[in-house]
Design goal:
The complex is a heterodimer of chains A (142) and B (291).
Chain A: H1 2-56, H2 60-71, H3 74-103, E1 106-108, H4 116-141
Chain B: H1 2-7, E1 22-27, H2 34-37, E2 43-48, H3 62-71, E3 89-94, E4 101-102, H4 104-121, E5 123-128, E6 130-132, H5 139-150, E7 154-158, E8 177-181, E9 188-192, E10 195-199, E11 202-204, E12 209-212, E13 229-231, E14 234-237, H6 240-257, H7 263-273, E15 275-277, E16 280-282, H8 285-289
Parallel strand pairs in B: 1-3, 1-5, 2-3, 5-7, 7-8, 8-11
Antiparallel strand pairs in B: 9-10, 12-14, 13-14, 15-16
Helix pairs in contact in B: 3-6, 4-5
Classes of the chains: A mainly alpha (142), B alpha/beta (291).
Chain lengths: 142, 291
């Protein structure tokens, strides 16, 4: 009889674990949503703003490419567009990066100062890079 | 703190306690502890450039510790951990967040506030136990410190702990008194705008300095060890942040006795009276009063 009871006990404890699993997955979902709303969406919006700004006031390289594009054979124009997009992205990313670096540029001068901000800054850079990568991917898919 | 005070010969003439002087601290804020409030309230003003709160607080602990080194009366320790100028007034300008980070914009706002209000609060000294994160020179901070210097305000800034031969802004500014760690920093030659000068200007003890502990002193998020606790009211910290308020306190004492001194005269008096050891100049308060 005790041998028969053992698996039943295991099943009981598995049943008990179910609500815990549900709670954990709910917590993970909430955390993901909070991360998305508080950080990722904001960083994506910053990246988009900066990209729009760069497009409105293009660099001299982009101006030159635009001028050349008009004199190039139609088959090549798509490549010019890709080049221009890449240039815009690079300058947008570089602008965002310098803003991130400038966001925290003073610290207390006691020892064992925390180094959390450089890490945050690097994470933000990665998230913004991801935004540009995604937008580039969708361009190539189109 | 008591050992550090002995090392810098913090023996001013009797009755010179910094009374009537006011030091402005650009830091993480200040926790209103008994050492600053009794028998007289000496926190003259608090401005929060980070979260915009009205009441004095310090969510990091650094600012309270720094203010304690310069201006605590050591009430909660029976006088053992009193600061250099135990009766001087305090203006606390919070420009660093809970993690001890800030930006030049907040620092410039705070300096602008001092520029507008220094007469109202009698601010004669500004303590900046802060500096840029890397060795880049912040010309805006240097210009702002020069403006304070022109207002007749003595600015004391930390040399930084990153490297013995790197000084961060605003410490690099020729018009501020740059304070190095007696234990670690070296003095070296700087050439800027055609002028040659030496920094740090003066050195003070910086290792394991015991001073006031903010009620919100944080350990877990700031990589601090619990071993730094001296008792429930006092805590040990190290770095040029701790050396700087010793010099600020010394400035308050010197200005109490010589109210007409210009920032340059204050700097010269302290540097001339310091004790030279190899290339370093250790702060010596007693000698500054006997020169």
């Amino acid at each position: 009889m005790p041998e028969n009871k053992k698996p039943t006990n295991n099943i009981d404890s598995l049943d008990m674990l179910k609500p815990i699993n549900d709670d954990i997955s709910l917590a993970a979902k909430t955390l993901r949503q909070s991360l998305e709303n508080n950080y990722i969406k904001r960083l994506y919006a910053t990246a988009k703003n900066e990209e729009d700004k760069t497009r409105r006031s293009p660099s001299k390289e982009v101006l030159l490419l635009n001028a050349l594009k008009n004199y190039s054979p139609p088959a090549l124009r798509l490549q010019f567009d890709t080049c221009i997009k890449m240039f815009n992205m690079m300058s947008a990313f570089s602008n965002i990066r310098s803003k991130l670096e400038g966001a925290s540029n003073i610290e207390m001068k006691s020892k064992k100062a925390p180094d959390t901000n450089p890490m945050l800054s690097k994470m933000s850079e990665l998230i913004i890079l991801n935004y540009f990568a995604e937008s580039l991917k969708s361009d190539f898919r189109d | 703190m008591d050992k550090a005070l002995r090392l810098i010969s913090a023996y001013p003439p009797e009755n010179i306690t910094g009374k009537g002087m006011c030091i402005a601290f650009l830091d993480t804020g200040i926790c209103p502890l008994a050492d600053f409030l009794y028998p007289q309230k000496r926190i003259a003003a608090f401005m929060d450039f980070v979260n915009g709160q009205a009441d004095a607080y310090d969510d990091n602990g650094h600012g309270t510790h720094v203010a304690g080194i310069a201006a605590s009366n050591g009430l909660l320790s029976g006088g053992k951990y009193r600061g250099v100028a135990p009766e001087c007034n305090i203006v606390s300008l919070k420009i660093l967040d809970f993690a001890g980070h800030g930006n030049a914009a907040s620092a410039l706002d705070a300096i602008n506030w001092i520029h507008k209000n220094y007469r109202k609060y009698g601010i004669r000294i500004v303590n900046m136990s802060i500096g840029t994160v890397d060795k880049s020179i912040s010309s805006s901070l240097i210009m702002a410190c020069t403006a304070l210097f022109n207002d007749g305000i003595t600015v004391c800034a930390a040399a930084g702990n990153e490297n013995s031969s790197v000084i961060t802004s605003p410490g690099i500014c020729p018009n501020v008194i740059t304070v190095g760690s007696w234990e670690e920093n070296k003095r070296f030659r700087i050439s800027m705008g055609g002028k040659v000068y030496y920094k740090p200007d003066i050195f003070a003890p910086s290792e394991n300095i015991v001073s006031c502990r903010s009620l919100s002193f944080s350990f877990s998020s700031l990589k601090r060890e619990s071993g730094v606790i001296e008792n429930e009211n006092y805590v040990k910290m190290s770095g040029t942040s701790m050396a700087t308020p010793m010099v600020s306190g010394a400035c308050a004492l010197l200005l109490e006795q010589n109210p007409s001194f210009s920032p340059m005269q204050v700097k010269k008096s302290l540097v001339d009276a310091s004790v030279q050891n190899s290339s370093k100049y250790l702060l010596n308060i007693a000698a500054a009063f006997h020169k």
